[in-house]
Amino acid sequence: MLKILGSLVGAVGLLWAGSVTATVDLDKVFKGDTVLLTLAMTGKKVDAIPDIPEINGQKVFNIQRRSSTNFVQVNGVSSMEKTNMMIMEFRPEQNMTIPSFSVKVDGEMKSTKPIMVTVLPSPTGAKRANSNFALDIAIEKQKFYLGESIVLNLYFKQRTNLDVLQIEYTPPEFKDFFSKQIGEGKTYKKGAFTIQELNYLLIAKKAGALTLEPARAKIAQRSRERQEGGWYIDVPKWTKISSSALNLEVIEPTEAHDIVGKFNLTDSIDTLQVKANKPVTLRMELLGIGTLEDYDGLNFEIPSVTIYSDDAKVESTLMGKKLQSRYQKSFVFISDHSFTIPSKEIRAYDYTTGKVEILKTKAYKVEVENASSLATKGVVESRIALPPIRAQLNMQKRTTLYALLLSFLFGVVLTLLFTYITPLLVSRWKRKGKHFNGEEAFKILYPKMNESKEVEEMVRQLYAIKSGAKDIRIDREKLKQMVARYRVSTTS
Predict the structure, then answer these.
(1) If you placed Cys at 179, which of 93, 174, 249, 351 could pair as Cys (CB 3.0 to 4.6 Å)?
(2) Which pLDDT band, with edges at 50, 70 and 90, does 439 fall under?
(3) In CATH, what number is assigned to the domain containing residue 274?
(4) CA pair distance 139, 151, nearest whole angstrom
(5) What does DSSP say about strands 28-30 and 115-120: parallel, antiparallel, or unpaired?
């Protein structure tokens, strides 16, 4: 009797024995797809699943941990069972075997079975879908100009009333395009399906035949899985879908151009009459439909005029389904004489007409007050009677004595200079270099000169020193504080 009872207890213990299982959503995947590995442990006492950073050298990501407790009854005997699950995602590069994993359950080490995963070559342009889910992409035209913006529409279709736990969407890579999502998307119903629509604005980075890679999605549906012992747990059942790839042709305009699109150019100058060494600011703006992200901008070169410019400010916004771009840049001209800022041209290729439009800045003649000028000296011929020969000899003797005396005095001066004065000047120069860099200060302050009269005056003085003025004295402590203040604002 005791022997029979012992057998019954053993059988019940076997029914209650803990379990560890490993499953994958798909054991055959296309190259580039990911695999979801689920480890599930069930028993009265379950250890935590350890961290698994990689599987056969492939990094694990999107890790999820879940746990649940179930009341079960076997042969009239009730018990509480706990289930721990860990879901891991990884991307296999080639055929592989997922190794066995061991975890302690109910005091015993339990191991999973190895799983073979086969990696198939990616289907070129193939679409993957089923009767419940599908991804489609559509583009307004497959042949367009470099610099032209086009709209791509993506549609995720899902049969309504399915028990979906999670959707993980991966957009196309857009590796050869500038891309920007338009809005937040929209959802609507069509027949037996719910459609989620997303819109993207694309601009090609290069010309030629380009391929737009597929969009991908993974959908988890609720599924009940039978466990050892006769009970069930809810597990995600994953489905993978992808859109087709798109082959596109991007045309390089044959006409010489600087930008592509339809733009207007405006420019303005703050003054046409200025005092010597005071800055004059020219501002320009391009505004229109197209992209200006790669536009190199204008350059000015005027002899004997110092020219500085700030970094261009480029902004892009969506106007309906078109990309509106704004390009703004300022130039500062400083001179001690009158000068002319020449007109500059920008060639804009308008792909709607197939023509190049020439945009021009205006030419500006700047008058500088008290401008420096070279004095014109006439050549005067004079005839002077030569002194007698004796007088010439006496003059030569006196000249020789004067030359010897001047040479002696010059040697004394050089000795004093190298012995006492030069070390002092070098020392002062080194101290000055530690605390003051006029070129650096000028570059930091000139963009801020319109913020206050104080900064404007300091810029004017710095430029005068740069131009060789000797009679200007700058409050170095004040300059140091000013530079420190604007250096922080510039770098922040």
Answers:
(1) 174
(2) confident
(3) 2.60.40
(4) 6
(5) parallel
